[in-house]
Amino acid sequence: MNAQLPTVPSQLVIGFINGSAVRVLEIDGCALSLESEEPTVGPLDLLLAVFNYKEYSFDRFEFRQCDVLDSRQDGFSYIYRIQLRFNDGPVEKAFGDRIEEIATMLDFARNRTLEDPEELLSRMDSFANYLPVYPRKLETRFHQTVAEQLRNWFDLRLVPPEDEAFVDLSGSLEMAFCLSRISLVELFCRADSLRGAIDEALAQYGLDSHGLFRKPVDRLYIGNEFCSHLFPSPEQLSCLLDKAAQEGLSITICTSFVTQDQLARHTELLDRLHRWGLERDRVLEVVCNDWGLFHYIHEHQLQLTPVLGRLLNKRKKDPRQQWQFGRSRYSKRLEENSLNQPHFRAFLENFGIRRFEFEAHLTANLIPPGNHSLHFPYFQMNTSHYCPLFAECRYFNRAAQRKVNSCPNYCEEFVFLYPSHLNIIGWGNTLFGFNRQSLGNPLYLQDAIANGIDRLVFSP
């Protein structure tokens, strides 16, 4: 065997002697160097787990009675050079193939700065059929304006059967509209009718005649889950609460993560919502993205219904996952998180948390028992305590992020645009993906509804 690997990545080749892990340092044909915490004597029985790129798993190779060619103590560890013994020709070939694949991939990684790495990758016969190639050339293609990008996203062109399927789906659902931006809050406060303002907002995106919205909206979400600076002022909140109550709309209040200096303001908000509900004999829902707020509601026995927010319903949602190596093998595992564990749901229920907020992202959600909400068509990908948009607008350097105490809401005027094939947009401190299927493919929502979604939340 002539395979050589002068530097062995510890994550790709793992060695074991008598069940104890050893570090493989170098492979030179049938000779192997390894590092062990404990002294040992030859001949050795060695197990090597070698990564298989095609299967995205580890192949096991066992070597019996390997001779120790050389040994030395190096500080607190022991270095051994041993001779591998192959008793089977096919096993020797399989081991050599795995080592050569690793060497080839390392060579590719070192040459990623080449002008066209896809061409280099395509020449790797052993990888060409199963290693995904990210389309780097598309990263130079952007929409010129956010208006152009939104037109492209909402250009759905549904055929009548699809639209009717959406109509049928909405009949069994509670439809909600989310006021997550200051401009929308101001618009709805000025409006004579909240339902009229909802229709006006939907018409801006060409969704006023969409099958999902033939049924009137039943619930209003107020607030932003990702940035506390986007929460309405006390006067605006009072206005929206009173209007929603007058028009018979159910109400859900959304709160974000809470820093220590914001804690008093948030607890005052919860107390105020509690009093508002008592005065009108109503119980408001509050979406929380901070465990401290759940504790406060429970500890003070507030007349509020706590809901698990999206920042606490953690998922891997990057649209570039489709080009991740090995994703097809483990994609089903990405559908789950801690909510699929009964003991964790029991813990949440102790705090009165029975509804969870989900998102229509690009991987299916394995939805646990119960009735839950699905936000669409945007899904949160990344949220920062500090705001890159504020840093870019104020300091002309998005990396110069720091705590924002007074925010002028730059996100009402500016956004970050990303390569158009990714369907991503940066609003303020959060990166969002856009899922066209949630508005364009009734089968996507049909699966979610069949698994326990009983409320759709539209965020414009």
Terminal residue distance: 61 Å
Biggest sheet strand line-up: 8-9-10-11-12-13-14-19
Mean pLDDT: 89
Instruction: Predict the CATH topology of the largest domain.
Output: TIM Barrel
Q: Runs with pLDDT <50, length 5+?
A: none
Shape: elongated
Number of helices: 14
Number of domains: 2
- Total number of strands: 19
Gyration radius from CA atoms, angstroms: 28 Å
Strand pairing plus helix content: what structural class? Answer: alpha/beta
The first-level CATH class of the largest domain is given as Alpha Beta
- Helix percentage range: 25-40%
How much of the residues is beta strand, in percent? 15-25%
The largest β sheet comes out as:
8 strands, parallel, barrel
CATH architecture grouping of the largest domain: Alpha-Beta Barrel
